[in-house]
Amino acid sequence: MNTPREEGYDSAWWALIYDQWNEMGDRAQRKDRELHFYQERLKECAGPVLEAACGAGSILLPLLSEGIDIHGLDNSTAMLARLENKARAVGVSDVGRRIARQSMADFRYDGAFSAVIIPASSFMMLATQEDQVACLKSIREHLQPRGRLLLNFYIPSLADDLLRHVVYPPREEEFGTFEHPETGRPIEVSYSKVCNLATQTETYTWFFEYDSHTAEVPMKARWIYKEEFQLLLRLAGFREWVLYGGWDCREYEGGPDTTDAFWVATAS
Predict the structure, then answer these.
(1) Cβ of 18: how many Cβ atoms within 10 Å?
(2) b/e per residue, 53-89, with b = 16+ CB within 10 A?
(3) Among 40, 141, 165, 256, which residue has the fewest nearby CB atoms (within 10 Å)?
(4) Computed over its alpha carbons, how large is the radius of gyration of the chain?
(5) Rounded to an integer, what distance in angstroms lies between the CA atom of residue 105 and that of residue 114?
(6) What CA–CA distance (Å, rounded) separates 214 from 212?
(7) What is the tens place of the pLDDT at every residue in 166-192?
(8) What is the DSSP letter of 141?
């Protein structure tokens, strides 16, 4: 039986497997390193913090447990429900007032934040430059004076990733097997991907197989190069920023392989 198509991480299927994926192999190490980056940068943060695209709370909940006054937004009802369930399980009762279903590209709050964070390459889920600029402008409008935007995303390898996925039709690739959190039965996940070098977009189709159900979930991401992102920051009103090449704040050098970009931009 086929289920209706849902878009990207807004799909309820992702909420079923996301936490398990975050604890798998290299992804678990990457998540822990990202968390360390945000923990260190927010140590001296005196005011409230906002996480855009907070998902199931893999960054938000650890930061909240450390006493950071953090709030979160996400466009996925299923992800936010998962976050609330996890919070209740560890005795956090007030998370409901801290999270909201809003779009990363066009969110609104009454107050201002001392920092806004976007971990896990979530900024790349804004698949058009217009949405990217709109997001950065919304962030700038919601930052206190000298407030900071902290985010990270990857820049894919041309040879090992992008050029391998420019052909159409794309080949299907295995992603993993996960357990349904309620039934324990397996969810088989695979995907296909096509890269468009002109628009800098990755178009995915994710396939979820569970019992007799099959779901196809489309997703699009857009990668951003160093010089381009600096222009996006300028368009949004930022004038100060620092770029690091990793969670440990080493110098950004780029290179032919997939690289990480960790940005800290400060509002004037």
Answers:
(1) 19
(2) bbbbbbbbbbbbeeebebbbbbbbebbbebbbebbee
(3) 256
(4) 18
(5) 19
(6) 7
(7) 998 999 999 999 999 999 999 999 999
(8) H
